[in-house]
Specification:
Order of helices and strands: EEEHEHEHHHEHEHEE
Number of domains: 1
Bound molecules: adenosine-5'-triphosphate, magnesium ion
Strand order of the largest sheet: 5-6-7-3-8-9
Radius of gyration: 17 Å
CATH superfamily: P-loop containing nucleotide triphosphate hydrolases
Distance between the termini: 19 Å
CATH topology: Rossmann fold
Structural class: alpha/beta
CATH architecture: 3-Layer(aba) Sandwich
Helix content: 25-40%
């Protein structure tokens, strides 16, 4: 369960101040598949960074599973982050490592050691078992994003955060990624938050929240 109450996020520099989120409140029950839409600059990524425990510089209250993680120690924070999978527009795979090694590294970060069976299953689940020994540069955009999703899902997180996962992909490839997210949502009891500019991607979710200038202006449950 994600709960934000009156969250303000302001970026401050020497000679600028940008209000990215304004008194934003949002509750997402465990297991919900939510899409977040809004124009460029409306605050979507800022919101995801706060929800994903990557940014603690905000006002207001944010609780994950009933608990605020602001100010907790490194150990509690890494433990909480291990329950979250992240997927980004630009995949963020390590290009000098094979697909399998990319997942193994994530497995070590999650569990302290490589869970080979889990890595193999993860690749199988995204239909890329045959690409285990390929390098990221040898894959198509859609395949890279599948690897990134497999990596994010290692160990079965409670929450999958995908910031524009189809932003760099063409329409057909994007819809294959969408089908994969829907499939993940069916098979795992994890919440999915997906940021998108694409109406089709947004509509695949159970619920869509629209941001304008850091505020929720629309909240549709299907
Ligand atoms: N590190 C930063 N420093 C200063 N301003 C920032 C920073 N990150 C974001 N902003 C500003 O905060 C506002 C919200 O940005 P954010 O990245 O959350 O938008 P977004 O909805 O994700 O946009 P996009 O669709 O282009 O990714 C924008 O006005 C942006 O310029
Ligand atoms: Mg963004």
């Amino acid at each position: 369960m994600i709960s934000l109450n009156g969250v303000d996020k302001t970026y401050r520099g020497r000679n600028f101040e940008v209000a990215a989120l304004r008194s934003l409140s949002l509750a997402v029950p465990q297991g919900q598949y939510l899409s977040v839409v809004g124009k460029s600059g409306s605050g979507k990524s800022s919101l995801m960074k706060i929800i994903g425990l990557l940014d603690f510089d905000y006002e207001g209250v944010y609780e994950l599973s009933g608990r605020s993680l602001r100010g907790v120690g490194d150990q509690a924070l890494s433990q909480a982050r291990r329950r979250i999978g992240y997927v980004f527009q630009d995949f963020q795979l390590v290009s000098r490592f094979t697909v399998r090694r990319n997942l193994e590294i994530a497995s070590v970060i999650r569990h302290g050691s490589v869970d080979a069976a889990q890595v193999a299953q993860g690749l199988e689940d995204v239909g890329l078992a045959d690409k285990a020994l390929s390098y990221p540069d040898e894959l198509s955009g859609g395949q890279k994003q599948r690897v990134a999703i497999a990596r994010a899902m290692l160990g079965g997180p409670d929450l999958l955060i995908a910031d524009e996962p189809t932003g760099a992909l063409d329409g057909a490839t994007a819809s294959a990624i969408l089908d994969l997210l829907a499939d993940i949502h069916q098979r795992h009891d994890c919440s999915i938050l997906v940021v998108t500019h694409d109406d089709e991607v947004a509509a695949a979710a159970e619920r869509t929240v629209e941001l304008v200038a850091g505020e929720v202006v629309r909240d549709v449950l299907r």
